[in-house]
Structure to design on (416 residues):
């Protein structure tokens, strides 16, 4: 294999070393925790280069698939890499094959020659779903050497329990994905977090402006990570919509490129109308936006014709715009991973402006709940082996994120 055209940072070298060890020696599923902006695609590329044997690289969607594939080819255009994805119209099986699980899980016989698997954004895998597409596929091809990469190795786990008075409660706790039964991922072999990357000068410093926001009127939905549409509709009243427009206007006056995260299409459209009335250059993308319109809006945003982009349910991963320097949080959430991913869209350095600082306007009470992103960290319990999630607010995976009283506990099997 040719020498690859890049220079690894010290922490990337350490991550690659641990990744190669994990795949070739440990031979069990493990995690590399790398903050948004740490260069996961480069880490993946160098693991492939170092092992130099067939590796299957799985991505959650075609956008991240394209990003990782293109990055690998940019390091070595002659490398044996291919794409197996129905949505891309390509079914190539090569030495390094980039695929989406939905395209391959029914075809394990085609991938019997692969002994190593890398899963990008592995927090999207539900560790409790032992019969899911991915775990069933891995069993079928006989692979146990699995490297998962993510910036956010935790999920919300719901459970019912009965207290000493016989009352039944439905709760949601934040848990590390390697501490969720049946423990698909065994351990974290390496981590590099946001605070350290900011300190080393590899990520942009962050300035927070936080509104005092009363979330008591919001009602949790059944997932435990979001709120009901009805309560969100009431929450985003005219005064709060005007506050979004004011934040966008302030950002515009300070010549910032802004990404606004909203809870619903209705909220985003209403806030965008107020911005247009102020003469602000805004646009909007949501999960239902046609592909061509979405591409047009993104390119307009990247090239500066649109300075402020509203979005609903998209752009939490795989959206890289280095000169993005303002995030507006207009989306309340109970999901720490979602909060982290939203802020992560703006922390990358801008090569043309080395003194970049990211401005975050929190209009949704998220920072007050979880703390600043750079204060969130995963550490091992004192004197033990379990990983815990901490921030300036304290330990985040200890107390329930929510707790509801229910009349009847549903019948179900399995362990939490």
């Amino acid at each position: 294999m040719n020498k690859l055209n890049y220079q690894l940072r010290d922490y990337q070298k350490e991550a690659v070393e641990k990744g190669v060890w994990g795949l070739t020696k440990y031979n069990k599923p493990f995690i590399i925790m790398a903050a948004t902006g740490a260069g996961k695609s480069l880490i993946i590329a160098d693991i492939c280069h170092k092992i130099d044997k067939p590796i299957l690289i799985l991505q959650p969607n075609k956008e991240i698939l394209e990003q990782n594939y293109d990055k690998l080819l940019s390091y070595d255009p002659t490398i044996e890499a291919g794409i197996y994805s129905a949505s891309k119209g390509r079914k190539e099986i090569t030495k390094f094959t980039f695929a989406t699980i939905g395209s391959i899980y029914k075809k394990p016989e085609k991938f019997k020659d692969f002994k190593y698997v890398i899963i990008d954004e592995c927090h999207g895998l539900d560790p409790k779903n032992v019969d899911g597409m991915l775990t069933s596929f891995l069993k079928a091809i006989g692979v146990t050497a699995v490297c998962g990469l993510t910036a956010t190795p935790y999920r919300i786990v719901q459970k019912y329990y009965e207290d000493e008075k016989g009352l039944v409660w439905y709760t949601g706790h934040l848990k590390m994905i390697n501490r969720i039964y049946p423990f698909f991922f065994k351990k974290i072999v390496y981590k590099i977090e946001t605070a350290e990357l900011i300190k080393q000068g590899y990520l942009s410093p962050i300035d927070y402006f936080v509104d005092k926001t009363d979330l008591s009127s919001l009602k949790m939905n059944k997932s435990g990570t979001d709120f009901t549409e009805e309560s969100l509709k009431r929450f985003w009243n005219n005064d709060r919509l005007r506050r979004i427009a004011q934040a966008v206007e302030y950002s515009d006056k300070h010549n910032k490129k802004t990404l606004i995260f909203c809870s619903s299409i209705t909220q985003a459209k209403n806030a965008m109308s107020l911005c247009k009335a102020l003469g602000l250059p805004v646009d909007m993308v949501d999960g239902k936006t046609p592909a061509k319109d979405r591409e047009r809006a993104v390119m307009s945003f990247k090239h500066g014709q649109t300075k402020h982009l509203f979005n609903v349910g998209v752009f939490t991963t795989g959206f890289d715009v280095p000169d993005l320097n303002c995030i507006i949080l207009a989306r309340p959430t109970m999901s720490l991973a979602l909060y982290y991913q939203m802020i992560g869209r703006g922390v990358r350095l801008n090569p043309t402006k080395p003194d970049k600082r990211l401005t975050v306007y929190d209009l949704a009470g998220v920072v007050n709940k979880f703390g600043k992103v750079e204060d969130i960290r995963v550490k091992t319990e004192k004197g033990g082996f379990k990983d815990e999630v901490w921030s300036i607010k304290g330990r985040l995976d200890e107390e329930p994120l929510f707790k509801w009283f229910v009349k009847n506990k549903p019948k179900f099997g399995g362990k939490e």
Q: What stands out?
A: The domain at 10-155+178-192 is CATH 3.40.50.300 (Rossmann fold). Residues 412-416 have pLDDT under 50 and may be disordered. Residues 9 and 403 are 44 Å apart (CA to CA). The chain has two domains: 10-155+178-192, 199-375.
